[in-house]
Amino acid sequence: MAGRVPPGSGANQNRVFIDLTDDNEPDDSEVAPKTLVQGKLPFVTALAYRSPTVPLKRKSLDISEGFSDSSSSDVHRYVPRMRLSHAHPDPSTPSPPPTVKQSQISVVIPSPTSKQKREIALAQSVSNVNGMDVNIFPTTDEEERVTKAAYPTKGRVERRSIPLSFKSSSVLNLPSPSKTDHLAKLRHTLDEKLKRIDGPMVTPTVDSPQRLAKLADNFEFVNSYQYRAGVERIPDDSDFNIGCACSENDGCDRFECDCLSKEEHSEDRIVPYEVCEKNRKLIVATKSFLNRKAIIYECNSRCGCSGKRCWNHVVQKGRTVRLEIFDTGSRGFGLRSPDLIHRGQFIDLYLGEVITKAEADERENLTDGSHTQSYLFSLDWYVKDDDDEEENMKVIDGRKFGSATRFMNHSCNPNCKIVPVCTTNHADEYLYNLAFFANRDISPGTELTFDYNQGEENTTPQKIDPEAVQCLCGEVKCRGQLWPNKRKGQGSRP
Ligand SMILES: C[S@@+](CC[C@H](N)C(=O)[O-])C[C@H]1O[C@@H](n2cnc3c(N)ncnc32)[C@H](O)[C@@H]1O
User: 329 C-alpha to center of ligand 1: Å?
Assistant: First the structure.
């Protein structure tokens, strides 16, 4: 059986995918100063604007005051220094009356005009860090209202809590109000989507707005397969769907239950599950099962055991661990859990759109090869290298719809394994679940990974294809690339 993760998928010609990403959302860093809100000045401009026009001074005046640290570029110090070095120390000081001893006076500076006096007074009252005293330079409507006592305010208005009204956030690195709104909207959208996921919480730890947008827009979390046009299914209530003859009272016999697969050349049953040694409440996949290649048939509604106390109901009971989507940096998003996961513990299903092989090929062909991220998995456990059978094959596309496991990255030394599991319907060999199990104990916070080439022979390339997606798993025995050259862009074989 081979699953695959080809290099991305394109839009289906018969289907419209709505891209919710707001491409027109302005990037604050790109907003040119000319787009500033009318009447508001950027921080730097504001400083320059408030430098008052000052009168010339007597040359004999001591102007050393305020120059104690002329090399300092600190804004705190710069503003008063500017003021002291240029402003008249006492604007009301009149010019000395002309005397007959003209030769004793080197320069005569006229007294400031009344307009200049006002400007000097304003300049002297500037005392805060930004040089934006609300009395002289209100930066927001709110401040103006506060200054004018246009509405009652309880306590002080904290200037720094008010977003600046000009667009460019580069000076103080504060988001503009529109950006803040957009971020809040994205977080809300994402929260709403995450809330709809069944089972323990799935949380995102993503701070960058762009990454948040990628997660919030353009992707829907789903709790089950989404069947698309052309996918034929055998209904659960079909006569072909059968169960075991075990009794409700005795429970399923671990060695006799008809649901269990048989070894290839014997009548022996393959027992997939056991009680976890470290947590007796957990049913986990056995160590030997994890080391082999086999499909699991769990008991279903057609079974005599009725499922209430049957140990062979694990995947269908759903996820029991919390998950967290986080940013790995070089490998995009990744998945981890804040919980301890025991070896053999079921983690979650790989979900997405169920499409035909033809549709998968079309989606694959529609990409221009620029996608390096791939989310397609073939359900080809029973497919031999035979064209007729391949036609019946279904493919899971997790690009636009999926579960949190869609964020699991590849590792050449993975801690999870993907296992084919039939739950409710045993009749449809072209449709089953892709279930992730831990192949060792995984401590909380460790990234969950699996091998995208699981089940492939000779996955270590002779020579790394320079065009293949480079593997960045960082393992000592890293194979260097995600997929073998011959199947570049194709993935896991459970
Ligand atoms: C199924 S997605 C995994 C989630 C993906 N990181 C994301 O941000 O959506 C598969 C893609 O993740 C990236 N990826 C996964 N494992 C990687 C690894 N070990 N090294 C480099 N890229 C990896 C590749 O771009 C790959 O096509």
Answer: 11
